[in-house]
Amino acid sequence: GGVAEGAGGRGPPRLNIIVLDGTWGQVRTMQQHFKRSINALVPHVRLLPETISVYCRSQSQPDRICTIEAVALLLEEFGEHQDLCAQLVHYVKINNRALHPV
Length: 102
Prior knowledge:
The protein is mainly alpha-helical.
């Protein structure tokens, strides 16, 4: 357990991230199971997106984003290059076009 150091014991500590993917109801159930049965002490991250999701689907709440958008936002918060994060979101747009051709 715990956070491991980077390669060779030098550099910043390595961070393990668990991403739950599914519908909002499925993720809520997985989160409750994780807390109850696996490890209740693992920190939970709440992301606060500043833009509307680009994922092509209807949402009951405007602040909800898809999993890949959440991963991109989290990576950006941890200092990943903005171009890489934007590229991840771009793949969501490509997926939208594939699922809903004009």
